[in-house]
From TrEMBL:
InterPro entries: EXS_C. It is found in: Membrane. This is Phosphate transporter PHO1 3. The gene is PHO1. It is a multi-pass membrane protein.
Length: 402
């Protein structure tokens, strides 16, 4: 329908879909009965009355997830928990936080390893989405354009996430051990290369041309991922992009040899801080403007205003971290509050379609994918909480750009 509206320069999709939803076709079980009749006819005439053979053709079975995947995922999850506990115990036992030089160490190492933390958290959230999409029969493979049978299940996604977390945590422990070991104390510049080596390993795996480690999914991520979905994901990974910028500065300019970072004193680094902070939101803003022009839908313009407010907020906050004047602080807080209000409203009312007073599910919407209404209210509260938490990231942002 969107393609039709674009070519015909009309806006008939909304009224058409509204009519379909209210029609007899949209509310009856006639379609299900027709599907059953088609299946019976196909099985009788095209598979010699062999139902299992016919149904395998009409409805290909999902790829079965092996016990090996489940075992590996659980094993790596256990390793992740064990490494986190070991890291906490080592820090407490050796009193690393009380030693001289801890501030410089954290100002350099935390931004480097936080990149993997952001990526792993994103992977875990995506795995949760895949789980609920499958449970409530959302055809996400069709929506995103996956080739049938190549989409990853939530166990496989978690396997990748926990694999990366194990590598990152093992690298952190190795770095700490070499920092504290007198034998390797003279090789501290080399120990600083561990995060860079891990990043290069991830890049090599992503670009690996061989048919291993889910090549079809890697190809989809790098080549055919829909731009609307990619832009949305990048807006959630601005801090990870900042970490990549820090990698380039820290290793590209040789700061790792001196165990300190002079990135913040560089005008080039500060300029790119603004660019990286705004690029994902500018991308989404341009997408909204394109759809506004193509579809003549004013809602896309309103959505663009939301992203414009977010661009102003992140730029103001970036400016405040570089120039901590009261004026910039007021501007940063004001723009952040406005962007938070607009984003929260758009998430709940426009994207989710909730808070409808006249809905048969009061304050929700008529059609609920999840049967438990409490889930939607929890999601609303959680969304508001996370949006408010986003305002409080000034200190974290300053820490990551040091």
């Amino acid at each position: 329908m969107k393609k039709y509206d674009k070519v015909a320069e009309r806006s008939a999709s909304k009224s058409y879909m509204r009519m379909v939803d209210k029609s007899y076709l949209g509310s009856s079980d006639e379609v299900s009965k027709l599907l059953e009749r088609v299946e019976v006819t196909f099985i009788k005439h095209f598979s010699n009355s062999n139902r299992s053979k016919g149904m395998n053709i009409l409805r290909p079975k999902r790829k079965r997830e092996t016990h090996r995947i489940t075992f590996s995922m659980g094993f790596l999850f256990g390793c992740t928990v064990a490494l986190i506990v070991a890291l906490i115990l080592i820090v407490r036992a050796r009193k690393i936080l009380d030693k001289q030089g801890r501030v410089i160490y954290m100002e350099t190492m935390f931004p480097l390893y936080s990149l993997f933390g952001f990526i792993v958290l994103h992977i875990i959230m995506y795995a949760a989405n895949v789980y609920f999409w499958r449970r409530y029969r959302v055809n996400y493979s069709f929506i995103f354009g996956f080739k049938e049978g190549t989409e990853l299940g939530y166990r496989e996604v978690l396997l990748l996430g926990f694999s990366l977390s194990v590598l990152a945590l093992a690298s952190v422990l190795a770095n700490l051990d070499m920092e504290m070991d007198p034998i390797t104390a003279d090789y501290k510049p080399i120990t600083k290369l561990l995060p860079l080596g891990l990043v290069l390993l991830v890049i090599v795996i992503m670009l690996c041309p061989f048919n291993i480690l889910y090549r079809s999914s890697r190809h989809f991520l790098l080549v055919t991922l829909p731009d609307f979905f990619l832009a949305d994901q990048l807006t959630s990974q601005v801090q990870a992009l900042r970490s990549l910028e820090f990698y380039i500065c820290y290793y590209g300019w040789g700061d790792y040899k001196h165990r300190q970072s002079n990135c913040k004193s560089s005008d080039v680094f500060n300029t790119f801080s603004f660019i990286i902070a705004g690029v994902p939101y500018v991308w989404r803003l341009l997408q909204c403007l394109r759809r506004l022009y193509d579809e003549r839908d004013p809602h896309q313009g309103y959505n663009g205003v939301k992203y414009l407010a977010t661009i102003l907020a992140v730029c103001a906050r970036t400016a405040y971290t570089l120039n901590e004047r009261v004026t910039w602080k007021i501007i940063a807080w004001t723009t952040s509050i406005i962007a938070t209000i607009l984003s929260t409203y758009w998430d709940i009312v426009e994207d989710w379609g909730l808070l409808q007073r006249k809905s048969k599910n009061r304050w929700l919407r008529d059609k609920l994918l999840v049967p438990h209404r409490s889930v939607y209210f929890v999601a609303i509260i959680l969304n508001v909480f996370l949006r408010l938490a986003w305002i409080q990231t000034d200190e974290d942002h300053r820490f990551l750009t040091t």
